[in-house]
Design goal:
Blueprint lengths: L7 H10 L9 H5 L7 H17 L12 E6 L6 H11 L7 E3 L1 H5 L4 H8 L2 H4 L5 H30 L3 E3 L8 H10 L3 E9 L1 H13 L13 H4 L1 H7 L2 E7 L7 E7 L2 E3 L5 H20 L7 H9 L4
Parallel strand pairs: 1-3, 1-4, 2-3, 4-5
Antiparallel strand pairs: 5-6, 6-7
Helix pairs in contact: 3-8, 6-8, 12-14
Length: 307
């Protein structure tokens, strides 16, 4: 049934990949994102894969003995991309890594599909509301952008190069994924992005009103705090960031590295906000019957790893 739903072009691609070993994501897992597309659309998506591969400079990336997996974690519309790109700019050591993101590094460069087919002149003239056209384009090609991102993520893992991943890191596969990364010898550095829920709502409105762009859906705000113990368990290094508002620069709250918590000058206020928000979300989740560690227990999960 699965194979019958894929186009002939992709079936040939599966056959060509079956003999190859994979690190984390099998060809079948990756290609499942193409199930909703026609044969012709699948061919155009593969063309966009080549474009994004070039943009991300995967071929130029070098193999490393101890590569780094640097990723964001946080709710949607919590300024993750802004924080990540500023972090990369301020830490040049990561600038040679392969930067992947289904929105910022895939969808925005899908010229054969997202732009040529859904955001062309005829499509944009079909509605007086451009955001509606953008939303339709996003919903049409988001699965394809995930196909491209996971394809390149698997390629980067096979090459054992440093990876920079713009993601919420809140999906069900995350604990197993991080565990496998460690088994592959990756140093896991996570950038945790937190804010009040109102900021995320404001971010959606700002994107619509000022940037004239369709924002990703808000999603469930409790998914991020639910995964917090996973981050503290598997990360080698953690950077905690707190955002007060949309237009002010995010504030570093704390760094966890080499078994220690590092609190730089001026970080205490941001850390208090970060901790308070976590405890607030934890209380709400406990009322739903879920069990989450306290903030002190979270820190001990990380600190005990070095003992």
């Amino acid at each position: 049934m699965y194979l019958r739903r894929l186009g002939c072009f992709i079936l040939c691609l599966i056959c060509s990949l079956q003999a190859e070993e994979y690190v984390l994501f099998s060809p079948e897992q990756i290609l499942s994102y193409l199930l909703s597309y026609s044969d012709q659309e699948q061919e155009e998506i593969v063309k966009d894969l080549q474009v994004v591969r070039s943009v991300c400079k995967l071929k130029e990336a070098s193999t490393q003995n101890r590569p780094v997996y640097l990723a964001t974690a946080g709710n949607s519309n919590s300024r993750k991309s802004t924080i990540l790109e500023r972090f990369i700019k301020e830490n040049p050591v990561y600038q040679t890594g392969v930067y992947l993101d289904p929105d910022e590094r895939a969808l925005k460069f899908m010229v054969h599909t997202y732009y040529a087919q859904s955001l062309n002149a005829l499509q944009t003239a079909s509605s007086p509301y451009y955001l509606n056209v953008q939303q339709a384009a996003y919903e049409k090609w988001r699965a394809a952008s995930r196909y491209i991102t996971f394809s390149l993520l698997e390629e980067a893992l096979q090459k054992k190069t440093t990876i920079i991943h713009g993601t919420t890191l809140t999906e069900a596969y995350v604990p197993e994924f991080l565990q496998k990364l460690k088994a592959e010898g990756y140093h896991i550095t996570l950038v945790l992005c937190y804010s009040e829920d109102d900021l995320r709502t404001e971010a959606v409105q700002y994107k619509q009103d000022e940037q004239k762009s369709y924002p990703s859906p808000l999603g469930d705000a409790k998914i991020f705090p639910e995964k917090m113990s996973t981050y503290f368990q598997y990360a080698d290094t953690l950077y905690l960031y707190w955002s007060d508002d949309l237009l002010s620069e995010e504030r570093l709250a704390a760094i966890f590295d080499k078994g220690e918590m590092i609190l730089r000058e001026g970080c205490a206020c941001a850390l208090n906000h970060f901790m308070s928000k976590y405890e607030e979300d934890r209380d709400a989740l406990i009322l739903e019957g879920k069990t989450l560690p306290t903030w002190e227990e979270l820190m001990q999960i990380y600190l005990k790893k070095s003992k």
